[in-house]
Amino acid sequence: LPCWKRDGSPFREVEAAASEGTVLHDEYFCAPTGRWIHYHAYPSEEGVSLFFEDVTEEKRMQQALADSEERLRQIATTTRDILWITDVATRQVLYIGPSYEKIWGATVQGLQRAPMAWLQSVHAADRDAVREGIERQYSGQESEYEFRVVRADGTMRWLRARATPFKDTHGVATRVVGITQDITEQRESEAAMRASQRILRQVADSLGSMVFMIADDGSQVLYVSKAVEKIFGYSQKRVLALASRWPWHAAVHEGDRQRVTQTLAQMVAGGGEQTLTCRICRKDGAIRSLRVSASAVRQEGGNIHRIVGIAVDVTEPMDLSVSSSAF
Predict the structure, then answer these.
(1) Are the C-beta atoms of residues 127 and 134 closer than 8 Å to each other?
(2) Contact by Cβ (8 Å): 301, 325
(3) Residue ranges of the alpha helices (H) in 79-209?
(4) All residues at 6 or more sequence positions from 76 whose CB lies less than 8 Å from its CB, including other chains
(5) What whole-number distance in Å separates Cα of residue 218 and Cα of residue 176?
(6) Which member of 19, 149, 160, 260 has the greatest number of CB atoms within 10 A?
(7) Are 55 and 27 in contact (CB under 8 A)?
(8) How far apart are CA 156 and CA 128, in angstroms?
(9) What pLDDT is stored for residue 322 in this prediction?
(10) What are the φ/ψ torsions at residue 292 (nearest 5 degrees)?
(11) What is the pLDDT along the chain (327 residues), one digit of tens a residue?
(12) Residue 316 buriedness (CB in 10 A; 0-12 / 13-18 / 19+)
């Protein structure tokens, strides 16, 4: 046998076991062949019976698993998110990252002793939704849910959990691997943004000029202030309710329509700011002159995201009216 020499470790161990009359189960690595060999030695009066088994592939799988677990530990110790693994049958926590203690304000040891104790920290209003998410993941379904936790010090955090079940060869879920993120800052930013938008709308609605926002291709009205009622004669509520179908292009006087649409196309293509004066036809048929200043808003990637602007009624007393309806 390769590597099976009288002065080698396996031979000496078998020889010692035989002299003591004890059964030996051991393994060794054979460098010339690159194989792991597991052997069983059974001493008897006639000698020693040896049985060999090549366990190289099993060893490689064990090493690959150990490497994966080590990478998981490295990620878990450097990320702000909570990485966790649970057993489906027992619902025991097999692994949880150290970020748990910082986010939850509780110890990992306490969680291991009482795997479901964390649920008591979940805000009462979110607890049923969390239970539903847990049941989905343990039934073999991917799940994602957001919830609040109340820490021991009384502070509250918003969390988002994503869970993926891992199944055996029979399709039965055996483990659940998940990640829980602290989204408190995101939630607070969203709330602050909504509050700012409400204030901006209130300010815009109090102005005599019409503030507007349209989609990047100019096809859809995303927002228009209350001044649309005075300038165009349409109610703000109706315009916003039918924003995707409001034919605002048609409300531009036919003599100015091409110039307006061309200017808009230039902004969509190249960005920048534009100011122009054009005529519009009100719902009641009256013609009004507007001075419109608009700017292209870009996303972080540089693409045009929105067109925003303000329109002021600059109609002169001698402007005439026509019988036309744009809506």
Answers:
(1) no
(2) no
(3) 99-104, 108-113, 127-138, 184-206
(4) 83, 95, 97, 98, 99
(5) 47
(6) 149
(7) yes
(8) 18
(9) 45
(10) -115, 125
(11) 556 666 667 777 887 877 888 888 888 888 778 888 888 888 887 788 888 888 888 888 777 766 666 666 666 566 688 888 888 888 888 888 888 888 888 888 888 788 777 888 899 999 999 999 999 999 889 999 999 999 888 888 999 999 998 888 788 888 898 889 999 888 887 777 777 667 667 776 777 788 888 887 767 888 888 889 989 998 888 888 876 666 677 889 999 999 998 888 888 888 888 899 999 999 899 999 999 998 888 877 777 878 888 899 999 765 444 444 333
(12) exposed
Residues comprising the chain, all counted: 327
Task: Give the pair of three-digit tokens for residue 297.
Answer: 């808003």
Residue bearing tokens 């194989």 = 35
Computed on alpha carbons and rounded to an integer, the radius of gyration of the chain in Å comes to 36
Q: Which of 29, 31, 36, 32 is nearest to 54 (CA)?
A: 36
Residue whose pair of structure tokens reads 């957001």 in the numeric block: 146
Residues 6+ apart with CB under 8 A from 50: 14, 39, 40, 41, 42
Report how far apart, in Å, the C-alpha atoms of 102 and of each of 45, 108, 177, 181, 268 are.
64, 10, 20, 12, 46
Alpha carbons 290 and 170: distance in angstroms, whole number: 70
Q: Please, which residues bridge with residue 146 across strands?
A: 160
Distance, in Å, from the CA atom of 181 to the CA atom of 58, rounded to the nearest integer, reads 35
Of 67, 99, 74, the residue nearest 84 (C-alpha): 99
DSSP state of 197: H
